[in-house]
Design brief:
79 residues, mainly alpha, two-stranded antiparallel sheet, rod-shaped
Length: 79
């Protein structure tokens, strides 16, 4: 009924090998494309460096450009 003959075992081994290597080939291509997309997203999300200066009123470091009023009396940055 379920005899294990040599030709059946060879065919089964070939089928398993084809499926195994098929997953390896297609899986590695998909993984490489996902990593490429992830790297592109990370490069877009990386902020540029900003020059920082120390505030004379509160002694915190703030961005040289684009800093707004902090709410403390004598703040040198405009509102």
């Amino acid at each position: 009924m379920l005899g294990f003959s040599l030709p059946k075992l060879i065919v089964l081994g070939l089928i398993v090998a084809v499926v195994w290597y098929g997953f390896k080939i297609f899986g590695s291509g998909r993984l490489a494309s996902k990593l490429k997309v992830r790297d592109e997203d990370n490069q877009k999300a990386t902020p540029e460096a900003v020059d920082m200066v120390q505030c004379g009123v509160c002694n915190d470091f703030v961005a040289l450009k684009g800093t707004t009023f902090c709410g403390k009396e004598g703040c040198p940055h405009p509102q």
